[in-house]
Description:
Helix content is 43%, strand content 13%. It is of the alpha/beta class. The strands form 2 sheets. A 5-stranded mixed β-sheet has the order 4-3-5-6-7. A two-stranded antiparallel ribbon has the order 1-2. Strand 1 (58-59) and strand 2 form a beta hairpin. The termini are far apart.
Amino acid sequence: MNSSSSSKLIEEAVDQMSSLPGIGRKTALRLVLQLLERNKDEVDRFSRAFVNLKSEVKFCKQCHNISDDLLCHICVNKSRDNGLICVVQDIRDIMAIEATSQYFGQYHVLGGVISPMDGIGPSDLNINSLISRVEENQTKEVIIALKGSMEGETTGFYIYKKMEKLNVKVSTIARGIAVGDELEYADEISLGRSILNRSLYTESLAK
Ligand SMILES: [Zn+2]
């Protein structure tokens, strides 16, 4: 179906809507027409949510999770084990792991993985803040929960090498479960199990 209409306004809205992942032009047109049927207040509220999201969003100064305050709700939660830090690529991974209800430590969001092809090196990621955090907080264990891609593996190894000097246990989530798929898409039960059954990082090197 061709979404070309006589309206430039509709075309522009469809262009924007279909720029989102997983939204084709046909779906975009359906959504745009649906929005058009709503009253002005509703549409204002809808669009304002995204403007505010981008202009007001903050990131936790400790773990780089998304946060409404200086520290996120996980970092300030005293019932969580702050001796345990789970290292993830992005906030979607936190959401996936939280959904398992199997992990009660804290997180550290790298903000990506090392990828020379894309010009992303260790200094572009939140690795230095992880090192100082482990040093300052007497962290007991760092859990590497990165994707099984080559970039994920490289990043995990880089972090492991940095942690070696810090006298902290380094573990990794069970292989062959969340690996291969995006971590965010692993089902909750197997992801939860892979966190509980995590193994020492050195063991994963031997394989
Ligand atoms: Zn935090």
